[in-house]
Amino acid sequence: MSIYLKLFIIVMPLTMLTGIYAGELKEEAREESMMTHHENISTQQKDTPIVFACYGESNPEITQITNMIRSLRTFGGSFKEAPVWVYFPEDFTDRDTSLLKKLNALDVTLKTSVTPEDSQYFYFSGKVFAASKAEEDACSTADVLVWMDSDTLILKEPLLFNLPKGIAFGYRPVMHKLIGSAYGDPPDEFWQTIYQEFSLPDSAFYPMTTPGDQQTIRPYFNAGLLVVRPEKGILRQWTRNFQKLYKNSFFVNQCRQDKYKRIFLHQTALVPAVLKLTKKTECIEFPETVNYPLFFKKMFGATRPFDDINDAVTIRYEHYFQNPEPQWENELKAPPEIIHWLKTYLAPPASN
Known about the structure:
The protein is α/β, with parallel strands linked by helices. The protein has 2 domains: 13-44; 48-345, Spore Coat Polysaccharide Biosynthesis Protein SpsA, Chain A (Alpha-Beta Complex). The chain is built from 12 helices and 12 strands. It has helices spanning 14-42, 59-75, 97-104, 125-138, 189-197, 234-246, 249-257, 259-268, 270-277, 296-300, 328-331, 336-345, and strands at 48-55, 84-89, 109-113, 142-148, 152-154, 169-171, 208-209, 216-217, 225-228, 283-285, 292-293, 314-316. The strands form 3 sheets. A 7-stranded mixed β-sheet has the order 3-2-1-4-9-6-10, with helices on both faces. A 3-stranded mixed β-sheet has the order 5-12-11. β2, α3 (97-104) and β3 form a beta-alpha-beta unit. The radius of gyration is 21 Å and the shape is globular.
């Protein structure tokens, strides 16, 4: 997949500088116009209180999504019958029809999204563009959009997703700090360039703690679970930010030198989208019972095992059930009906 590098000339004619400045003013005016437009839409009555949506681009992800929706339909309480939209790439032609049949049986709406070719060098780019499309589709119909990664399961009624009045964004922090910016330290060149690129002042930042390694960081949101008011435009701005970053030669070079930056560039682009379009009082950090990382220590390392889902509302399991340990259920603290459900759908006994 190709990478488009943009060469910047250090010395520019005055007319070019004037054009750039005018472009910046135009962008600021556009953001102000968007916020006014979103406020106007938010006063309109919506047909649907909440919509769940996700993205898949492979047959294994279709299987995960099927189990996600099964979990919602089983344990979702008053949300059991909520609409679910599943996005696939337009060019995803090798979908397993038997898997799609199981998915369709769960009363879902299948949709498509387009991932630009120049973004595909960067991990999870398809998810970003699908999220933008989902927000656009939900803007006039739903009060709340819940955007989830395919490895999510809903184990209790997710009442927290019914955002209170005045709240526009619900989130969890990233699992590990990794490339994140430590709250008490000056930002490194990578983050400082992001902050400058999007004109984010120090006053915009607030602390959050990563669940996996207990590090206090500047805002860095886990893109695997995002609950938004669609009219706010956060997910659409996320996409525009991502495009701006992956077309910038500085960030391309950073991603070439550091695989984690290539993996998580999409997630860094979410930060300025949230901070530019919301006030802190409009955001809510969900408790750790949401987006709980099952067996995270076993897979990626952590300060604790993450083996107790008795109180979990939603969990993430990554790739764990592709090759689970033989007696995993004996290590897991969970209600018996949840363990039975997991054994039935995620870790069925091997056939002879």
